[in-house]
Each structure stands twice: as C-alpha cells, then as structure tokens.
Specification:
This protein is of the alpha+beta class. The chain is 54% helix and 11% strand. It contains 18 helices and eleven strands. The longest helix has 30 residues. The radius of gyration is 22 Å and the shape is globular. The structure holds protoporphyrin IX containing FE and (3alpha,8alpha,22R)-cholest-5-ene-3,20,22-triol (2DC).
Amino acid sequence: AVQPFSEIPGQWKNSVANLYTFWKMDGLRNIHRIMVHNFNMHGPIYREKVGYYESVNIIKPEDAAVLFKAEGHYPKRLRVEAWTSYRDYRNRKYGVLLKDGEDWKSNRIILNKEVISPKMQGNFVPLLDEVGQDFVARVYKKIERSGQNEWTTDLSHELFKYALESVSHVLYGERLGLLLDYIDPDAQHFIDCITLMFKTTSPMLYLPPALLRHTGARIWKDHVEAWDGIFNQADRCIQSIYRQLRKNPEASGKYPGVLASLLMLDKLSIEDIKASITELMAGGVDTTSITLLWTLYELARHPDLQEEIRAEISAARIASKGDVVQMLKMVPLLKGALKETLRLHPVAVSLQRYITEDIVLQNYHIPAGTLVQLGLYAMGRDHRIFPHPEQYRPSRWLRSQSHYFRSLSFGFGPRQCLGRRIAETEMQLFLIHMLENFRFEKQRQVEVRSTFELILLPEKPIMLTIKPL
Ligand code: HEM
Ligand code: 2DC
C-alpha cells in the first residue's frame, strides 16, 4: 500500500533544530553537499524544513519524470523572495523569471519564439561567432605581452566579459566593446553587481527579506544596490536601442537582435519587454562563464580527451565547409563535454516545482501543492544513476545509453531555461575557437570544490596555462 505523506523520512518536524545544524555546518555555502548527505542518510526521498520553507526532496530520474508530469500548465518554481521583494520595493515589473500563471505563459510564449526557437539559432550564430573570434585575438595578445609564449591566469574575469559581450550582442545586436583594452567602467560595474546580487540572495533564502528590510540589514542594502546597478545599466542599453529604432524604423534586412525584434513585433508592453530583457542580460553572465571555466579546468586535467575533442572540431570544420550552423551539428563529443561539466558542476543545485495534483513518489503519497525539489547536484554524483560519477567522461552522453530524465541542467519543459539556446551556442562556439587555437594545462592537480552563492561557483580561483598550438 502507498504510505502516507507523514511517513516520509527526514528532519522536517523540528525546523528550529534543523536551522541550527544548518548554520553550524555552514549550510549556506554547502547546501549541495548537505543534500548529498541527506540522501545518503534517508534514502532517495526525504522531507525537510529549513526556516520557513518546506519541501520533499528526490534524486531519481524516474521520480523526476513523475514530478514534471504533475507540474501543470503554469509550472511554478520556488519563489526567490529577495528578487520579488526588490521589484516590489522599487516598483519594477516582474519579467518572465518571476511571473506566474497566465501572465507568465503569455509572455513566455512570445519570448520563446524570439529567444529559444531553433529557427533563431541561425541568427545568433554569426553574432556569437564574432565574439568568439575576438576572444581568441585577445588571448593571443595576452600571450604575446607575457613574453613567455604562454599565459597563466585565472580566466574568470575574462570569461565574465566574454559572456556579457555575447549575450549583449544577441539581445541588442550591438557590441559593448568588453574585449578591448579599455572598457566602459559601467559595464564592469554591471558584472560586479551581478556577482553581488547572487551572493546576497542566498542568505535571504532562509531569512525573509521583508524582515531584513525593516531592520535595515546590510545584506538587504547590498542586494538593493546590486539590483539597482543591474537595472540602471540594462535601462541604458535598452534606451539606446529604443531611440535608434524610433529615429530609423525601417528594417535593414540584417537581424537586429532580440530587443529590437520584440519592439517591432509589438506584442508585449514596453515595460514587460524591459523586465525580461534585463533578466536575460543578468542571467547571461555568471552562468555560462562559470560553466566554461569548469570545462576548461576539466579539459586541462584530461589532455587526451582535450586532443580528442580538438580532432572532432577540426574534422567538423573541414566537413562543414565554412557553414558554422552545420558545423555545430557535427560535434557530439564537445556537446557531451558541456553536459558532463554541468553534471558535475551544475549551475542550479536543484530544480523545484509546486505540484498541481496528488502524486506517488517512492511509494509515498504527495499531496497537490507540495514543493518538490530534484537534487541536481546530488543526482549528478550518484553512482546508481551515473556509473563512476567521479570520472569526467563526455562519451557517456553519446547515443549508447539511456538519458531518460538525466540531462536536466537547464531544467525541463515549458518553464526550462529561456536562455538555453543562447547559452549552448555561446559555449560551443567559445570552445570551438579556443581549442582550435590553444592548448590548456593545469599546474597543480588539485581538486576544486563548489561553493553555493545561489548558483554553484568554484570555491577558489582556477589557474590555467594557455599555450598556442
Ligand atoms: C531559468 C540553468 C544560462 C536565463 C533557468 C533554470 C535553470 C537554468 C536550471 C530553471 C529551469 C526550470 O525551473 O526548469 C541555466 C544554465 C545556464 C543558464 C545551466 C548556462 C550554463 C542562462 C542564460 C540566460 C538564462 C545565458 C539568459 C540569456 C534564464 C531565465 C530563466 C532561467 C530568464 C527563467 C525562465 C522562466 O522562468 O520562464 N536556467 N541557465 N539562463 N534562465 Fe538559465
Ligand atoms: C537556488 O534553493 C537554490 O538560471 C534554491 O539565469 C532554489 C533555486 C531557485 C531558483 C533557481 C536558483 C535555485 C539557482 C539560480 C537559478 C534560479 C532560477 C533561475 C536562476 C537557476 C536553484 C538562473 C541562474 C537565472 C538567473 C537570472 C537572474 C539573474 C535575472
């Protein structure tokens, strides 16, 4: 017989005690490892209550399948109160990230066509390819200046600039110039604000922002300052495109970027467009840059694999005869490498949904309305789901074994990552250009762990040596 909800294992009954152990274990930065620990202790399902938010946690692909079948027409994630509180405080509209219900759906359908339909990829490729080529030129310059025919560095800051330059080129159809020697200080400030915004969000997952706001807490002030910086910079970019479009409305035939396309389409209000474009711009920096950094780290640790992927790229370059869209269809191992990076180093520790109907998970009854979390980080490192999970093996993603509900790094279904196509294309083109030109090496073979700052980040700088081929 199916067991009742109240029988699910876990320490959900004593939430104060749970919060205490959580702080003591430095839970804030270790959420991903605490989840692994909980699955080891309780098995593949457990209930948990930390502070005010309660959830059922699952790890198995079969259970993920059941969860996503019960997500309803308007799938809802855990609400990040810090983000909604800021919008309410400053009287700014929610974009697609924070909207729910019919309002979310109608905005999302229009955005889908402009941002993740396969048809758009052809428009994005030339824009992203150009940025990739410029990045290579910049690295050659750095190598030359070092005078040692190699460059040893923590690439993260360069990658942030690459990511912002890439997403901006797609959104605005224009370059920001972040890969030049002297960059706009406002753009650098924007990058710093995003990092600060994520960092200040995570404590507020457990302490209600409303409380912090009324007690004048530092963390809330920093958070507001970070979002202010993000919105101000995005507003400047949006205004400049808007003005150009009004001065010169006739289409030139050239793809004008996501923002101009949305404005000309005239199906969303200007305020809705601004809100979602700002979210896309902010969501497009740390996510792809950190994933690229982890990928270079893994390839530096696996020189034979690096060589194998380089060979795949060379063959694809020749076979595609200059057609880059075609080329991207011929690099399965490279795509496997990105999936493998996100398996071991996911951006999101978990996926969550409020289920809209009663379901059964691991033989327990789960009532409609429950918040169910799929532990993505824990799943990626479970040996029952991924044999030898500690090994970085992109070939496991080739068409040999079943990937049933195992490839979930960008989420699932209609509420999945809106930036997915941009992210994937941008990361594939980056790796193609970099591997065609340079070799990556790692000095000391030390394991770098993840730390949670809303998204998962490397806990310390990753130093790489880059050499021309
Ligand atoms: C949502 C992952 C890059 C914009 C999400 C979600 C995940 C995710 C897991 C939640 C999906 C769900 O609940 O099913 C990633 C990863 C990235 C990445 C792994 C890169 C490696 C980006 C980029 C952008 C972006 C580049 C913007 C250009 C968004 C937005 C949402 C979202 C707007 C909310 C969509 C909605 O609620 O309808 N992402 N993301 N992401 N992401 Fe990404
Ligand atoms: C963080 O317990 C851990 O893609 C929480 O580009 C549950 C949770 C809820 C929503 C998740 C968040 C986690 C991680 C970061 C995500 C976010 C939804 C979107 C966001 C996954 C797992 C992200 C990084 C977006 C951010 C866009 C924003 C900056 C405008």
